[in-house]
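fold-stage: in
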Amino acid sequence: MSSSIITQAVERASCVIKATELARPLLSFPELLDRENALRKALAGQVQARTMSLLERNVQIQKLYSQLLEEARSRQSAAPADAGKPLLAVAQWRQSNPESCGRLGGDAGTCY
């Protein structure tokens, strides 16, 4: 199974990127999603080329998630109060997709 995840890493990342683009217009800070998707694509290429392990990829994605959430919170605290609704939806989505969903392909039916 791990082998097919590796050989299809770019294809899987492209699928996730396409799916997350649907949420982009709803986000307060869509450029944060752009950063996430750019890293997702770059890491998938490295995994598929076997220059990076899945574990290393997972660590990098988790680091970015933490940075992006912190940056969004920081920006949100400086933004008007009504701008928080999309951020809340994104935070809830992140919380509903645990660390295991950060892996290529996830490991549950609810990972996106």
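fold-stage: in (second)
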Amino acid sequence: MIYAEGMARFTLAPVARELLRLAADGEEHSTTVPYGGDDFTLYGHLRARRTTPGQGEVGVACWIVSIDLARFFGSNPPAENETRLPPEGTATPDGAFTIEAARHLAASLNALDGPRSATNGDGHRTMTVPVDVPD
């Protein structure tokens, strides 16, 4: 996907760095961030936690909400629940888009390994990153 690199570098990476900073409290932190424009919005759900001294784990799942399609069929913007993953929402991660964004995110964060599938099947791709992630 053409937008995966820009989303990873300019939106996901800064948020992942902030979540890793917050994860110093020993908890897992997560958030959903939008990236897009008038025709569609790309969403990324990030979660981060510290795993060992000097390392953390970042997970990402991405999906697309077509604003034009929603306007065409319903004459209104997409429903709010389309912007969130279950159990709060109805969004479904886009596997190909998630893989591509995760690859770029891994490069941006100097990941110690490549993105791998989460074992819980929730669509997130996870990677191990140094905690002191460069800006």
